[in-house]
Amino acid sequence: MSNLDQHPTETTCGGTQHTPTTPTLELIHGHNVALGGTRHTTVHRTLPDRQRRMIGAWCFNDHYGPNPTTTTPMDVPPHPHTGLQTVSWLIQGAINHNDSADHHQTFTAGELAIMTAGHGITHSEQTLTTHPTTHGYQLWTALPDNTRNTTPHFDHHPHLPADDTTTLILGTHNGTTSPAPTYTPLIALQLQLPPHTTHTTPLEPDFEHGITTATGHATIDHTPLPPGPLLYLGTNRKSLTITTHDQPTTLLLIGGQPFEEHIVMWWNLIARDHDEITTARTQWQNHDPRFGTVTGYTGNGQRLTAPPMPTTRLKPRGRTR
């Protein structure tokens, strides 16, 4: 997934200064963003946000769909990433992934696709019209300094730990660990709850957490949570109780230890300062071998061109506004 904004804001985030030490309820409404090489798809972005830019190492959260695949296809041409992991999670549909490390993978609902960009990688994504509806999430996690320049790689996990209500996407939960690679302490869960249910799930109190509703409607601590917003929960919670209403409800819970390092996010790149971003952008524009070449892309778009750099240098702003 790519950030296709032609005037992206350069954002500094990370550090623990603005991490609450108690449970809290902070509703992040997010905003809609046009996505896809032909701008057919609209996503709802809740991270990064002016209100809060990170939850643990989670620094990007797009929710898209449900969309009819034939009329609103996702076609994201080759584009670069550095210093992050992309975490692709489908509730409905199928996506074809191709990258410059020679990974070619189709994944469907309930299968985890996770790409570790490391020093630099290029990839493309396309929905498959053989599946009539596309609905899912694209998230990024920031890599810590000691692994952010690792060799890029891609992992596909078609089978994840699950029970009647909970699918463990990343991290460790209730004594069970996901097989997917992580580089900081993280958690990602999908919760599927029937109507008129009260469900309690254990949490790691050292983590900060956020939760969003994909389908249905939930209430958490007397706070309504329809599809769209992300509810930031703070830290020091040992459990979370969710109440559903008159529809089956699917939610995504993310969390992690507060990310202590400061990072710079711009377009599809994560680095540590303005100069690193400038170097990566120049290398991408010049077709430097750092990013390689994608084969297997069959969409209608062209290799994305990086937007112009901002006219002023980065001014650190921290985790929150």
UniProtKB/TrEMBL annotation:
<feature type="region of interest" description="Disordered">
    <location>
        <begin position="1"/>
        <end position="23"/>
    </location>
</feature>
<protein>
    <recommendedName>
        <fullName>Pirin</fullName>
    </recommendedName>
</protein>
<dbReference type="Pfam" id="PF02678">
    <property type="entry name" value="Pirin"/>
</dbReference>
<feature type="binding site">
    <location>
        <position position="125"/>
    </location>
    <ligand>
        <name>Fe cation</name>
    </ligand>
</feature>
<dbReference type="InterPro" id="IPR011051">
    <property type="entry name" value="RmlC_Cupin_sf"/>
</dbReference>
<dbReference type="InterPro" id="IPR003829">
    <property type="entry name" value="Pirin_N_dom"/>
</dbReference>
<feature type="domain" description="Pirin N-terminal">
    <location>
        <begin position="43"/>
        <end position="140"/>
    </location>
</feature>
<dbReference type="Pfam" id="PF05726">
    <property type="entry name" value="Pirin_C"/>
</dbReference>
<dbReference type="InterPro" id="IPR012093">
    <property type="entry name" value="Pirin"/>
</dbReference>
<dbReference type="InterPro" id="IPR008778">
    <property type="entry name" value="Pirin_C_dom"/>
</dbReference>
<feature type="binding site">
    <location>
        <position position="79"/>
    </location>
    <ligand>
        <name>Fe cation</name>
    </ligand>
</feature>
<dbReference type="GO" id="GO:0046872">
    <property type="term" value="F:metal ion binding"/>
</dbReference>
<feature type="binding site">
    <location>
        <position position="81"/>
    </location>
    <ligand>
        <name>Fe cation</name>
    </ligand>
</feature>
<comment type="similarity">
    <text>Belongs to the pirin family.</text>
</comment>
<feature type="domain" description="Pirin C-terminal">
    <location>
        <begin position="189"/>
        <end position="287"/>
    </location>
</feature>
<keyword id="KW-0408">Iron</keyword>
<dbReference type="InterPro" id="IPR014710">
    <property type="entry name" value="RmlC-like_jellyroll"/>
</dbReference>
<keyword id="KW-0479">Metal-binding</keyword>
<feature type="region of interest" description="Disordered">
    <location>
        <begin position="296"/>
        <end position="321"/>
    </location>
</feature>
<feature type="compositionally biased region" description="Low complexity">
    <location>
        <begin position="9"/>
        <end position="23"/>
    </location>
</feature>
<feature type="binding site">
    <location>
        <position position="123"/>
    </location>
    <ligand>
        <name>Fe cation</name>
    </ligand>
</feature>
